[in-house]
Task: structure prediction
Amino acid sequence: MTDVQPQDDAGATEFVSLVAGKQSFCIKITEIREIRRWTPVTSLPHAEHAVLGVMNLRGTVIPIMDLAAKLGLGSIEPSTRHVIVVVAVQGRTIGLLVESVSEILTVTNDMVRETPAVRREDATRCIRGLVEVEGDLSRILDLGALLGGEREEAA
Result:
């Protein structure tokens, strides 16, 4: 089982649960900088299919990525109902378009289930594990693995 690196004395880590591509995911709360409503972005020619464009965030230009498209779950058609989760990963700030953000989860290591082995390693390399949320399984995203190989499009 993958260790989710406890953040407090009780051995629990806090995650923010979200929906992308109609699927449930969790991101470690310490990787999230802010959550904001969708606003139109400036597109970039020849950008990767998951990169929607860039936006100015208080004087810093950051790339905005469709999380569902990045995960191979189809594209989200952005609307005012969607949100951007601004994350910091490996020294970079990136916005992730998601369908919704629902709650903060407190997860202990014993609650995390191992990601089952599948034929393609790509299918699980960015999933740290699974956690049960209200009867459904939510995937814990490893943003370093998911976004680590990307060059920042806005640089």
